[in-house]
């Protein structure tokens, strides 16, 4: 039986990757993830920041503080492209408004890190979650297999974006 292949434990694609998706569909996916998603999320951030009584930079700062663990003031300045004095003023405003606190880093007490005040951030997080409800409703149109594939794709994509972002943050700014 010359047609039989040896049994393996890894998945072997029968179709080359280029034939699975058309170039047009790949372009659409990349454009949606890289540009359109960012544009529409940015537009929503303006509304969410206004509802919370925050400036756009304050809102973005809180997004970073909520997402990134053990965020230092210097890294926040780097992420928001703020000068040290502008960053200090922003952190002080958020601290006085009760959104965050400064505490020593858990492993290196010489460093200061920014932590969200979970009680004060409940409404902010709820507003962020409200925007996600539209995405949750859209998932109802897909079967579990499709959602599992989408989850795997997004997890991998976000993992690469996170790795690149954290790698850039570790480099010293010019």
CATH topology: Arc Repressor Mutant, subunit A
**N-to-C series of helices and strands:** HHHHHEEHH
Strand order of the largest sheet: 1-2
Compute the average pLDDT: 82
Notable characteristics:
174 residues; mainly alpha; Arc Repressor Mutant, subunit A; two-stranded antiparallel sheet; 2 strands; 67% helix; globular
Explain how this protein is built.
By secondary structure, the chain is mostly helical. The chain has a single domain (24-169), classed as Winged helix-like DNA-binding domain superfamily/Winged helix DNA-binding domain (Arc Repressor Mutant, subunit A), CATH 1.10.10.10. Helices cover 67% and strands 6% of the residues. Strands 1-2 form a two-stranded antiparallel ribbon. β1 (100-104) and β2 (112-116) form a beta hairpin. α2 (23-52) packs across α3 (56-67), α3 crosses α5 (84-96) and α4 crosses α5. The protein is globular, with a radius of gyration of 21 Å. The model has no long low-confidence stretch (mean pLDDT 82).
Write the layout of secondary structure elements.
Layout (H helix, E strand, L loop, with lengths): L16 H4 L2 H30 L3 H12 L5 H8 L3 H13 L3 E5 L7 E5 L1 H22 L4 H27 L4
